[in-house]
């Protein structure tokens, strides 16, 4: 029997509420672990979760970052949650009528915290502190430009990180565990690695720098070996950090009553060995969306079991609530299902035929970039309408719709219904303004990633998430944000900038419908762009700078929608400032 140990049921005798720790890695694929048979790396600590817990072998996530995060948090398809993209401009924000798994645990008396990459909204009430977390340390963007002591935030306040980010997030999580060892806690650890830029401490890189790799991608001619080596080194660093958390649980005698979950947010961020699966990050094929799901709970789950039944990131929210006994007032609206049934029954063999009986027992839909596919226990219909039998062809090499015409028709019709009933919820969506002044946070961040410009101002890179603005040479050029001010108040405005000594004296004005403030930049700050010195592989994202902050003054904002605009009304040198971020601190009366 798989899953529930010693005849356990959810109606067992009363016990202390279990703790929950959820690890989520970024751009790590199904194949990036030694326990799945990859000889290129060693992940003993994550492997121990498979040995000491349950491995779901057919677990699926989304093709990219923010959709997977939204589906984990809500148990609902990301299209229902308002997720429209990953690159800023508010497209990754989770709709405010969605209740998160963190809110459910918080309401049940848990201490809740998140450490790492959020990517479901920056400004409160989209910020993690507004979505059920008592504590947040990390960044809200989709990726970050430097992994060594970067600018981060702690409950909305800008802070400086300490060391390599994955190590730093783990250290903070361990401190939270120690401080809350007498309380039930829910910890979300969404690491931002092995997402690029490909940076990793020397200790791990040295293991791979000149390593000959025993396994290659199925399209080995496309694989960039130094990128693969860096990614695998980052995966080993993740494993080391998972081990730090697991040892802390052992030392504090919390392991038996702590549920530990590990999964990835999408497929690998580049061609590398992935057990022969087709596709990488961004793809709706098996390789782009299949992730291991590991779940360890010594008090309840039988160790070393493998579950072959179909499972989804959508299922984690309802599963954790049932496994812990925590209630939820939207249980009936989940698109996901509790996995407790799979945990309690014998191994479900993949391949239960969709050709016999009433049809597939479950259909999981994947969508990104206009491409939709659907998975059943046995088959996948890809975004081109081709059918694959994954029992005999897990690598999706030979279409079988001619052999199984009824299944192909049925699944094509299912895709049409899903697009009509679920994906259509994104139709007609327009960009909503950025919120300012929500009661849950004193500070609102307005980063360059969310702004639009006029004139010749340009981003530091094509990927906006960690970018800044440069090339500001004309007083007619502007940087602006549509905003929705939630509270009438004065807001203390701080600007993060760089400025060459020859350009000192630029006068920066921030204006809204209620007035304006201006600040003359009278102090040079011209650091070099950094990041390349740590990169193990050439990046596509922006390099970063150590931006300086200065207070612009207090601006009165009135409740309602507005447009905030930055202008450089005087440019005495060749250019105005380079711009990274505005913060607006609500001043309480």
Secondary-structure map:
Elements (H helix, E strand, L loop, with lengths): L18 E8 L17 H9 L1 E7 L4 H10 L26 H7 L3 E7 L17 E5 L11 E4 L2 E4 L4 H15 L5 E10 L7 H7 L16 H27 L6 E7 L21 H4 E7 L8 E8 L3 H9 L15 H5 L19 E5 L2 E5 L3 E3 L5 E3 L15 H17 L12 E3 L6 E5 L4 E3 L3 E2 L9 E2 L7 E8 L3 E10 L8 E6 L2 E6 L27 E10 L2 E11 L7 E10 L2
Parallel strand pairs: 1-7, 1-8, 2-10, 3-4, 3-7, 15-20
Antiparallel strand pairs: 2-9, 4-5, 5-6, 8-9, 11-12, 12-13, 13-14, 16-26, 17-20, 18-19, 20-25, 21-24, 21-26, 22-23, 22-25
Quick one: how many beta strands? 26
Strand content: 25-35%
- The average pLDDT is 93
The name CATH uses for the topology of the largest domain is Alkaline Phosphatase, subunit A
CATH architecture of the largest domain: 3-Layer(aba) Sandwich
